[in-house]
Write a structure and sequence with these properties.
The chain has 4 helices and 6 strands; from the N terminus they run E-H-E-E-H-E-H-E-E-H. It has 160 residues and is of the alpha+beta class. It has a single domain, classed as Cytidine Deaminase, domain 2, CATH 3.40.140.10. It has a 6-stranded mixed beta sheet with strand order 1-6-5-4-2-3, sandwiched between helices. A hairpin with a 5-residue loop joins strand 5 and strand 6. Bound molecules: tetrahydrodeoxyuridine (THU).
Length: 160
């Protein structure tokens, strides 16, 4: 028997004031997207924004449904918007943030497993890393270099 150890490096900015203008802009776009959330059931707004290699910034927010399993995560809405408006663009960075009616979210929120898998498909397809920025409503910003860092030992098309 042998073991492998899989690690993920996260850059932590204690304050968004430490971010470059480029990164701050994406975070602010994700925060602005919170207003597009339709989340009357969970009352948990999630906003996501992406910078593309053509310079465009796109955003999306979670869209819930009275039939709960049909809820769309913000990341899914964002990726759908990108693939329908700029299908040939590469995604450089995705920022994700959240706001809740119940409490102040002061730590980064992390994308769910389905969204990680879907973002990974985009990353593999474009053959270049998508950096991920995570922030709560306030507090530190986590920066991860690639989606693959968030989903090690992943399932992908090369296995089919
Ligand atoms: N949600 C997202 O939008 N993205 C995630 O990665 C995790 C969860 C949404 C789905 C639902 O509308 C609300 O957060 C509560 O789960």
């Amino acid at each position: 028997m042998r073991k492998i150890n899989i690690g993920t490096t996260i850059n932590i900015y204690d304050s968004q004031d430490e971010l470059s203008q480029n990164l701050l802009e994406i975070i602010l776009e994700a925060r602005a997207a919170l207003d597009k959330s339709h989340s009357p059931y969970s009352k948990f707004r999630v906003g996501a924004a992406a910078r593309l290699d053509n310079g465009k910034v796109i955003s999306g927010a979670n869209q819930e449904n009275a039939s709960y399993p049909l809820c769309l995560c913000a990341e899914m809405v964002l990726l759908s918007a990108i693939s329908s408006t700029y299908p040939n663009a590469k995604i450089e960075t995705i920022a994700i943030t959240a706001r809740s009616n119940n409490r102040t979210i002061d730590m980064p929120i992390s994308p769910c497993g389905a969204c990680r898998q879907t973002m990974l498909e985009f990353e593999n397809r474009q053959a270049s890393p998508i950096a991920i920025l995570l922030q709560g409503e306030i507090g530190p910003v986590y920066q991860i270099s690639a989606v693959s860092d968030l989903l090690p030992v992943s399932f992908d098309g090369s296995l089919l």
